Amino acid sequence: MKKQIILIAIAAIFSINAVSAQGGRQRQTPEERTKATMEKLVPLNLDTDIKSKTEVIFTDFYKAQQEAMEEMRSSGNFDREAMSAKRKELTDARDKKLKEIFTEAQMKQWKDEIEPSLRPQRGGGPGQGGGGK
Questions:
Q1: Model confidence over 22-37: pLDDT tens digits?
Q2: Interatomic CA distance for residues 106 and 109, integer angstroms
Q3: Which of 33, 66, 75, 116 is most buried as measured by Cβ atoms within 10 A of its Cβ?
Q4: Which residues of 8-39 are buried (b: 16+ CB within 10 A; e: fewer)?
């Protein structure tokens, strides 16, 4: 009887572990990403008009980024360099639009503090992209 209980407990632990490992992180929609970005822009003290223009810029940016990714995936030929170039092109266009509505100080704060915090963080463990030396 004890052996059966121990085996059931071990099986349950493995099952729970397997399910949680598959969970992963869901991709955010462009709207969710825009909302998260707008929350990080609070220190810029944007007025209502600038805030709404900024929201449109980020929504358009994230939608274009998502479309480019889907296009690459559906073509079956996912080229990292091409995606990187497309991402840079979209980012440059976004920053050009932001430069038109942000003050110099706001733009500097965006580039130096806020934008880096939006980049996906890589894990530091083995096989997580953070590799050790």
A1: 555 578 899 999 999 9
A2: 5
A3: 33
A4: eeeeeeeeeeeeeeeeeeeeeebeebbeebee
